[in-house]
Amino acid sequence: MELRTYWGVIRKRLWLVVGLLAISLASYLLFAPQAPASYSTNMRFVVGLKPEPSTGAYYTYDRYYTWLTAEYLLDDLAEVVKSRAFAQDVAAVAGLDLPSGVIQGATSSGKLHRILSISITWHDAGELSRIAEAVVQVLRERGATYFAQLSAESAVVSLIDPPSVSRVGASLRQRLDLPLRLALALIAGVGLAFLWDYLDVTIRNRADLEELGLPILAEIPAVRGWLGLFRPRSNRGYRP
User: Which domains does the chain show, CATH number per domain?
Assistant: First the structure.
């Protein structure tokens, strides 16, 4: 079957394809759930440890162990940030009457060398700003209290990138929702057009008569021009 024949099948029932596309688009515009507004903030801290004072005129490798201990401390602090106790402290400082699990589930952390990164996603920009400020305050003032082996003045948590609140854009799934709906509607429309054509037993062209073994005496040409673009080719008449 030539490409023109394929296009003839689709053109003859183009209304079916266009109709399914229109229904899919209308259903998306009317019934697709609107994603609620979401905001995020990111901040970074540097975690260090004050070296122990020298007790004699000898080399003690104190700087090496101080840096090494700071890296271990950061590993633990990254997990502390995701704990329920830290979330409760943040909620108390922020003055928000929220379950600790809510803040805990919206907080994620990452670490690189002695840099602690904290990201928080929230539905309200004002509350998120208060939560971010509370996180900074808790880590600065109570960072060492989460570690029983450290005194309050040993650990040093310094803010290097202050939090900034920004709106979260649409996810990849949300951006691809409408194109995928239209693509599926197009595939379904083309498939139904070919199925309809396959089940249709009407004689539409001379090839159908030739398959039946009937002689053709005359043929009425189809209407040409842009007016006949969407007119089916079955307007031709055949006389066996």
Answer: 1-33+174-200 (no CATH), 39-167 (3.30.70), 202-240 (no CATH)
pLDDT in tens, 59-84: 555 566 666 666 767 777 777 788 88
Burial of 128 (0-12, 13-18, 19+ CB in 10 A): buried
- Rounded CA-CA distance 129/139 in Å is 16
- Which pTM does this prediction carry? 0.58
